[in-house]
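Schema walk-through. Below, the input block comes first and the output block second. Nothing else is stored per chain. Lengths vary across the set, and this one has 221 residues.
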Amino acid sequence: MTTITPNLPATSSTAPATTANALNQLSGNFDSFLKLLTTQLQNQDPTSPMSSTQFTQQLVAFSQVEQQINTNSNLQTLINLAQSNGTSSAVSYLGKTVTLTNGEAPLTGGVANWNYALGTNAAATTLTVTDANNKVVYVGSGQTTAGMHQFTWNGQDNNGTQLPDGTYKLTVTAADSGGANVTSAVSTSGPVTQVDLSGSTPQLMMGAMSFPLSSVSAVSG
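--- output ---
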């Protein structure tokens, strides 16, 4: 007797279209299964009828596939819900002042602002600014006393060339009179001016700089 083996659709949780295709494939396979089963029942050998165990196993296989597709559909619903909640959360940041501690800041209208803190007094402090491609565009001297300091950059490189607005990163390197490293921390603060929803995850905008919610270390206002 011929054994009916369903062509199981591949499972995926990445898109609703995948689930729809899988459902369509399952429906087509099930129709074929019923036709073959009917033919088998009509033409089976009376002295060797179809095994009920085999018949049950085939039905169970289809049931498992259907459960997998339902699981994928439910998972996609959860993903959509999470994305919706993420969008709502991102929009709530509009107009609020956020603080970032990854060293990045927006250069807007030829001005970028950072705060940096030194753990102890330093003999020398170097401020290094890199662009979005990690290219060093500016190197200068910073404050050497312990505590919080502000650095305002005019967007010009060391040759005096005005650089375009965008995202830049400040790195602070300090050492004491004995050459030991001095701990430092860099932050920037500013209002969220826009929320970019064009990608798969919401991005907050501070001037010309975009960043994910996960980069925010503090919110005020």
